[in-house]
Amino acid sequence: MVAPLTGRPAPLGEPLSFVLRALAPCLEGITHGGRRLCVRIAMRDSRSEPEAARQAVRELAEQDRVSLVLTMAGTQVLPAVTSVCEELGVPCVSATFPWQAFGAARGGDPLVAFDWTYHFAWGLDGIAGVFADLWERLEGEAVVSCLGNDGLQGRLSRDEQFGFAAAATRRGHRLIDPGGYREPAGDFTAHLQRIRGAGVDVVTSAATAADLALFLRQARESGVRPQLMTCSRWLTYPHAAVAHSPEVRDELTDMRVGTLVYWSPGHPYRSSHDGSSCKELADAYQQATGKPWLQPPRPGSRPGRSRPPHAGHHGRPPPTGRPSPTPCPAPGWTPSSAPWIGLRPDPQHHPAAPRRGQWQPGDDGPRLQVVTNSRVPDVPATANLITAG
Question: Domain of 112: which CATH number?
Answer without folding.
Answer: 3.40.50.2300
